[in-house]
Amino acid sequence: MIPAAFDYVVPRTLPEAVAELVKHGQEAKVLAGGHSLIPLMKLRLSTPSFLVDIGRVGNLTYIREEDGHVAIGALTSHHDIEFSELLKNKLPLLTSAASQIGDPQVRNRGTIGGAAAHADPFGDFPACLLALDAEFKAVGPRGERSIAARDFFVDTFTSSLEPNEILREIRIPTPPPGSRGTYLKFSRRSQDWAIVAVAAQVRVTGHEVTQVAVGLTGMGSRPIRASGVEQALRGKAGHDDELRAAAERAVDGTDPQQDLNGSPDYRRHLAQVLTRRALEQITAHH
Amino acid sequence: MAISQMVGASIKRREDPRLVTGTGSYVDDLPQTALVHMHVVRSSEAHARILGIETGRAKEADGVVAILTGKDLKPEFGAPLPVTVCFVPDKKYPNHYPMAIDKVHYVGEPVAIVLASSRAAAEDAGERIEVKYQSLPAVVDIEKAIEAGAPVLHEELGSNLSYDVKFAAGDIEAAFKEAEITIKQRLIQQRLIPIAIEPRGVLADYKTFSNKLTVWSSTQIPHFVKVWLAVILGISESNVRVVAPEVGGGFGSKIRVYPEEILTALASRRLGRPVKWIEDRNENVKATHHGRDQIWDVEIAAKKDGTVLGIRPTQWLNLGGYCSQFGTFQVLGMLVAQGAYKMKAFDGRSVGVFTNTTPTDAYRGAGRPEATYLIERVMDLVARETGIDPVEIRRKNFVRAEDQPFTTLLGLTYDSGDYTITLDKALEMVDYAALRREQAEKRKQGTYIGIGLCTYIEICGLGPAAATQAATGVSLWGMSVVNLHFTGKATVIIGSSPHGQGHETTYAQVASDVLGIPVEDIDVQHGDTAIGPMGMDTYGSRSTALDGNAVHISAMKVQEKARKIAAHLLEAAEGDVVYENGKAFVKGTPSKAVTIQEIAMAAFQTNRLPKGMEGGLEATTFFDPSNFVWPFGAHICVVEVDGETGATKILRYVAVDDCGTRINPMVVDGQLHGGIAQGIGQALFEEGVYDEAGQLRTGSLVDYLIPTASDLPSFELAATFTPSPVNPLGTKGIGEAGTIASTPAVMNAIVDALQPFGVRDVAMPATPQKLWQLMHRNGGTTR
Ligand SMILES: Cc1cc2nc3c(=O)[nH]c(=O)nc-3n(C[C@H](O)[C@H](O)[C@H](O)COP(=O)(O)OP(=O)(O)OC[C@H]3O[C@@H](n4cnc5c(N)ncnc54)[C@H](O)[C@@H]3O)c2cc1C
């Protein structure tokens, strides 16, 4: 379990980092927290011959609110997200998801940028970022571009980042007051990857569900927006039977896989149960 | 009489400061110069002929010193790897060499070794080796392996059947004739992968001109490894030294003479340089033996009042690709399957089968968890069928205190025990009656609570020597040397080889009480064949019953000699001198005493010794007890199963264990905590899974789930004390009790929780998906 030989650079600025990626082409990989990439390299499932460690590029670790958005630097650790006061107030969906990722070691090292770029369909942040309509700012040889969440997650371990692009920032529209979120994760042991998880963000104004966004983890080859649930609930009063009926539609458009932890049927069932529980939990506060 | 002070004291383990600060030395930490690193190229095929191994490109790689295949080393394998008798003298098994020669039989079997200047270079070169296989059909399933037309692993044996043996006594036909109730059930003991935190590792150093071999190995059995290295390499046993340095857990997975121990030694002999191999986790899950993987089919004959008349269990054992060294030890499960209960007849059959999987061997409990699972599930099945409470079923069938020493149908004799005392205490701790009421209430609200019991007995001790010689082919006894230094400090050498059990602490406590020397002044040494006589090492919860008592006996011998020297120094008659708390004096005049320090010094001064007495103050003991020891206990588990998701939560776990005298209750509790956790692992999480082609699907800790602290409840422990009559300290074993008891307790609780759904048994592990399927197979209706 020793990686194949590779070379390694530690650029100090983003342009330098991009230049290294351009220079080494397909052979190069960005290294952030290393908690997805290094295990793959140790198993020699990934054998990049060049690593560009962005860990010491300045100004990529922050969580701040600006012009109606929450901006999170790509190198912000899961731990920093879990314990951010700002996020606890504005985006508890993210703190809740962060607190359920792996164990403290993983949360100290892993970064939200790495988790997004890795695009693991069983990763916890992607479904949250999809539900929250996040925007991904990436820097490449031709400058910076912005990618919408629905375009960002392409397939298993595939994002729409180009190999020579670096994710710099994730921007999330600040939910309006009264909007609440939670992440319910079902796994066999507390620190495992999800079998299925549900990210839900809901706003009930008066007696009307004015916002509902649901993202699903583990229900296909990429995170899935449960648009059936959203359609079914939007504009409703949020009564129990409505929540239940909406949650039934969590299976729409999903394509869960069969593995040692669950069959497609079981995953579909879990998606419904977890969605209902998440919706109940959020609207119960109301 | 020494006053017992240290025995029974929960002093802190002296092993821990170095271990928790990372300053202990495991094999990989040992300093060595001129080291060569070994990487093992392992079979990627489950069943295949080796057509050729292309090593040319690898030999040219940077840093490579040598590459050796099975063919290269074959002339140097003086003997195949050992296989012990272990209850099945007439089994069929193939010769098993440290490296495959013509054929591979499981994924992970060694096919070549790369020796290089660094670990990385060795792995890089390993990738360049091309093994040409001719794939053969594989079989991984016990039942399929003995079907007609199944691919045969070892052609020379004719089939995949290694043995089919009976263990029967009493009139089983009569029992079934008398039965008012008969029950048939299949119970699955899934394959487990022992995950010691430290995988295995070996450092071998063969000194060319002195012909001396030293091997440091992460093993539970340095003494046995020494014997077999000598035999297989053809070296005089007196020139072989094996050291087990810090060993980071074993659980039975390190009680074998392993291929890598032989391969590093052979490579070192060839190269004249020390050779090191450290197993990584990737290898560990395939190359280190697995545990369990059995099917138990049982038929039960019982009466309506809950009396069990007899059982007819068949144990199907998956041996894996070869017969491992103690590969038939699990048959012990059949011998002790009667458990804590009386019955009239027992009709057991054990069938061992080869498959294209990693060999199975001892894993924490080795046979006893299987036996206990069987009999404790049997008790619950009878309870379910008769409608009688599981507690009452157990009481009805218990061996009673007045039956002790009780001899089982298969002829084993229990040493002591009143099984109602642990049960009563456990019931009181959980408030059983209230729990049952709560369960009934909650069921009405659609919440599924289950209560599971396990009232186990366990065979530990391994000696007596004659019994183990007959049953396993090895005479097992306890060994100790107690040696007093000039200044009255003591060194204790033991034959056990602890790797987490805390013998350095607990055996110092034993010696301290006898000698009256402070524990801090007693050093306990182990795990090095050069420091003392042949020891029998550590497994089967045997150490304290054997070696711990051997320490006591040697210390008593030393005390006796000390008393004689003291009598001489005091110019008193030997018979008038007593020894207490490290001092000897004439009875009634403790003010005029000589201390052990003075006596020890005198033992090395010829002018102060009694005439004709040999110098020194030292004793050696080979302790052979008259029987095994039989701890027992009652565990109760309370679970809640989520009716929607199938997730199990353990609400309470209560354990009352009786292991006789507890030398250090904190160490006992530690053993129980780990053991219970491991047993819960089998019940809820762990399962080694192969696909049809023999590829291991649970090849990493992402897929093979071991329990972690956050998945476990807080254990509620208590104890009763029934000293064993067969050893002077009255100790029994506790290393495996937790594992043995917790698996059935948890599974009985889960089955109990799902009773409203008509569920009678759940195959382990009780995954959420499985429970969900069981609850929803009839559309989720309850009865
Ligand atoms: C034991 C363990 C348990 C875990 N459990 C969970 C879990 O329960 N849930 C979960 O969601 N995750 C889990 N993870 C994964 C963890 O969250 C990772 O940290 C995360 O997926 C990747 O982040 P990283 O910073 O470590 O990325 P790295 O491993 O450094 O990189 C991952 C990939 O993303 C690319 N990359 C990284 N940063 C950038 C960037 N800024 N721009 C472009 N490309 C980039 C890399 O090139 C690489 O391909 C676990 C990991 C471990 C080791």
Overview of the structural elements:
Chain A is of the alpha+beta class and 286 residues long. Chain A has helices at 14-24, 37-42, 78-82, 85-90, 92-99, 104-109, 112-118, 124-131, 149-152, 227-233, 240-248, 264-284, and strands spanning 7-9, 28-31, 50-53, 63-66, 69-73, 135-140, 143-148, 153-155, 158-159, 166-173, 179-186, 196-205, 208-217, 224-225. Chain A folds into 3 domains: 7-53, Uridine Diphospho-n-acetylenolpyruvylglucosamine Reductase, domain 2 (2-Layer Sandwich), CATH 3.30.43; 63-172, 2-Layer Sandwich (Uridine Diphospho-n-acetylenolpyruvylglucosamine Reductase, domain 3), CATH 3.30.465.10; 181-283, 2-Layer Sandwich (Enolase-like, domain 1), CATH 3.30.390. Chain A has 12 helices and 14 strands. Chain A has a 5-stranded antiparallel β-sheet, with helices on both faces. Chain A has a 4-stranded antiparallel β-sheet with strand order 11-12-13-14. A 3-stranded parallel β-sheet of chain A has the order 1-3-2, covered by helices on one side. In chain B, a hairpin with a 5-residue loop joins strand 17 (478-484) and strand 18. The mean pLDDT of chain B is 96. Chain B is built from 21 helices and 26 strands. Chain B folds into 3 domains: 34-136 and 195-287, Alpha-Beta Complex (Aldehyde Oxidoreductase, domain 3); 291-462 and 627-776, Aldehyde oxidase/xanthine dehydrogenase, molybdopterin binding domain (Aldehyde Oxidoreductase, domain 4, 2-Layer Sandwich); 478-623, Aldehyde Oxidoreductase, domain 4. Chains A and B meet through helix 12 of A and helix 4 and helix 21 of B. The structure holds flavin-adenine dinucleotide. Flavin-adenine dinucleotide binds next to strand 2, helix 2, helix 7, helix 8 and strand 10 of chain A.
Task: Give me the secondary-structure topology.
The complex is a heterodimer of chains A (286) and B (783).
Chain A: E1 7-9, H1 14-24, E2 28-31, H2 37-42, E3 50-53, E4 63-66, E5 69-73, H3 78-82, H4 85-90, H5 92-99, H6 104-109, H7 112-118, H8 124-131, E6 135-140, E7 143-148, H9 149-152, E8 153-155, E9 158-159, E10 166-173, E11 179-186, E12 196-205, E13 208-217, E14 224-225, H10 227-233, H11 240-248, H12 264-284
Parallel strand pairs in A: 1-3, 2-3
Antiparallel strand pairs in A: 4-5, 5-10, 6-7, 6-10, 8-9, 11-12, 12-13, 13-14
Helix pairs in contact in A: 5-8, 10-11, 11-12
Chain B: H1 16-20, E1 36-42, E2 48-54, H2 56-59, E3 64-69, H3 70-73, E4 103-104, E5 110-116, H4 119-127, E6 130-135, H5 142-145, E7 161-169, H6 172-178, E8 181-192, E9 201-207, E10 212-217, H7 222-233, E11 240-243, H8 259-271, E12 275-278, H9 281-287, E13 291-302, E14 308-320, H10 332-335, E15 345-354, H11 368-386, H12 390-397, H13 419-430, H14 432-444, E16 448-457, H15 465-472, E17 478-484, E18 490-494, H16 503-515, E19 522-525, H17 543-570, E20 577-580, E21 583-586, E22 593-595, H18 596-603, E23 618-623, E24 632-641, E25 648-658, H19 665-685, E26 715-719, H20 737-753, H21 768-776
Parallel strand pairs in B: 1-12, 10-11, 14-15, 18-19, 25-26
Antiparallel strand pairs in B: 1-5, 2-4, 2-6, 3-5, 7-15, 8-13, 9-10, 9-12, 13-14, 16-24, 17-18, 17-23, 20-21, 21-22, 24-25
Bound molecules: flavin-adenine dinucleotide.
Flavin-adenine dinucleotide (FAD) binds at residues 29-37, 39, 54, 74, 101-102, 106, 110-111, 113-115, 117-118, 123-125, 161, 166-167, 193 of chain A.
